[in-house]
Amino acid sequence: MPRQPRLPAQTRRNYLSTAVVLRSKGLESDSLSVERIAEELRRSGNVGDAFEDFELAVAKAFELLGFRAEHLGGKGRTDVLLQAELSSSERYRVIVDAKSSASGVITDNAVKFDALKDHLKKHRADYGVVVGPDFAGRVKEWATNNKFNLFTIEDLIGLVERQQHAPLTVNELRQLFMHPDADLSTVEDAYDQAGQTSLLVAKILDMLYQEANDEDPIADGYMSLENLHFAIRKELSPRPTRDSVDSCLDFLSSHVVRAVERKADRYRIIDSPSNVARRLSVIGSNVSGLIVKGI
Fold it and tell me: In the list 26, 30, 159, 277, which could disulfide-bond 288, CB 3.0-4.6 Å?
């Protein structure tokens, strides 16, 4: 095999430097990050003298949801400014007021909605959210009247936990800010669907792997879309549609994933599941390294 030309020394140094930077900017292990943030939210949100710690924890939590989160604070500014970094027609901003309380309840004299509406204008934001351990009844009423959303600490932790296992897009998460009184239940169906899609991909790969390694494979390891759908619909609940199975097969047979080979209307596995997992993991690691953090 002919030797590949070597990159110039400076180019190699630049490439290696970039690779190191990307890896260093990647997110920590998801489960570890979530555990730490949940602990810090509960600790700093339920004392009266750790407001900056709480603001930082809130910013980090929203960052784990996929937003650019800038911790601002100070007089006349919002505590945290979120931005969904999308195209100009889809981009949106959210101001977040982080309120901690030693009593565990944010009372009506702790939230100034007139000031928050000024923050909306100042930061050219589309939506506003107040995060706290819990809220008195009048605060909930005023928030609804002023078109602000209230997230308890447990609401936010619940969102972050769901996001790590079945991530929604920041466009899908927009529902949380568009409607007063929105909470985790607002996006529960979307999270369930995302989780089911992930399970479906794994189940398809497992079935093709089992068929290919059967002692007496029917068609050299190939399975048709109809056969796969028939077998899988008995194992998953709710039952996946034929179109959803077809979409997952398109994904698995793509040049990027290279897990499944298509021949006419039949499919078979062409790599070990462990290699497929590694390929997807490498893609995920490289993409996470590109995330721009705002804290």
Answer: 26
Residue spans of the domains in the chain: they are 25-182, 192-288
Per-residue CA distances from 228 to 64, 195, 213, 240 (Å): 35, 19, 16, 11
Token match 């097969």: residue? Answer: 249
Rounded distance, CA 293 to CA 295, Å? 6
Q: How confident is the prediction along the chain (295 residues), in pLDDT tens digits per residue?
A: 333 333 344 433 333 333 333 333 344 456 668 999 999 999 999 998 899 999 999 999 999 999 999 999 988 999 999 999 999 999 999 999 999 999 999 999 999 999 999 999 999 999 999 999 999 999 999 999 999 999 999 999 999 999 999 999 999 999 999 988 777 788 999 999 999 999 999 999 999 999 999 887 777 899 999 999 999 998 999 999 999 999 999 999 999 999 999 998 899 999 999 999 999 999 988 887 776 555 5
